[in-house]
Amino acid sequence: MNSKTPLTSLKLQTQLLRKQLGKQGIDNADPVLSRMEAQLNMVTRLVGELLDLSKIQAGTLEYAQETVNLDDVLQEVVEIVQQMQTTHTIVVHRAASPPLLVGDKDRLEQMLLNLISNAIKYSPGANTIEVDIKTSEEAVTLSVHDQGIGIPQEQREKIFERFYRAVAPHQRAFPGLGMGLYIVAEIVKYHGGSITMESEMGKGSTFQVTLPLKRT
Ligand code: ADP
């Protein structure tokens, strides 16, 4: 079952339309099509997150078990994000040795995508996001740091809850439904890791994920 199929098909049709209109010399359709594509991407993400949420609740979310290099996953995510977002530069500090884990590559990609997208979304006045990967004997620690609006102290535990959104001034100006971090926390938990967050209002936030490395 793939409930995303109609959306995929809609996206393809938008691309087709762009080509056909281009051939007819109708260039001013481009911004409209780009907005349509952006909205379609948002709906696709929303449907995906709602499905994930239902599966988490039903205990039927499935994970692949493969060897994953977190450095490679990060590189892919950075490329995807930088194609869509040009407001922020993502500065990456890589690990000295390859951070190999056992787990689900797509889910780990989703985890990183959520953390980095949030860092960008909640730091409209900044232009860099820093991502660090460090390895120790047994674990890899990944941190995503932004110079954004920050999260009030008393709400820091709650942001990992389903549908929770911080209520600090200005927070509500940002679109979202409060599902991302709940899914991130689930993915981290499945991989046997932990997630913490530090933040200073008006200065920024750092999300830190620690995951066990593959045993050799
Ligand atoms: P969404 O962004 O869709 O609201 P999330 O589950 O990803 O949902 O995040 C939950 C809440 O945590 C957000 O609504 C926001 O208030 C807060 N938050 C998450 N990441 C950041 C960040 N990098 N900086 C400031 N606030 C954040």
From TrEMBL:
SUPFAM superfamilies: ATPase domain of HSP90 chaperone/DNA topoisomerase II/histidine kinase, Homodimeric domain of signal transducing histidine kinase
Stored SMART domains: HATPase_c
Protein name (Swiss-Prot/TrEMBL): histidine kinase
Enzyme class: transferase
Entry keywords, A to Z: Kinase, Phosphoprotein, Transferase, Two-component regulatory system
Documented EC number(s): 2.7.13.3
UniProt superkingdom: Bacteria
InterPro entries reported for this sequence: HATPase_C_sf (IPR036890), HATPase_dom (IPR003594), His_kinase_dom (IPR005467), HisK_dim/P_dom (IPR003661), HisK_dim/P_sf (IPR036097), Sensor_HK_Regulatory (IPR050736), Sig_transdc_His_kin-like_C (IPR004358)
Membrane-crossing residue ranges in chain numbering: none
Histidine kinase domain segment(s): 1-215
The organism's taxonomic lineage, starting at the top: Bacteria, Bacillati, Chloroflexota, Ktedonobacteria, Ktedonobacterales
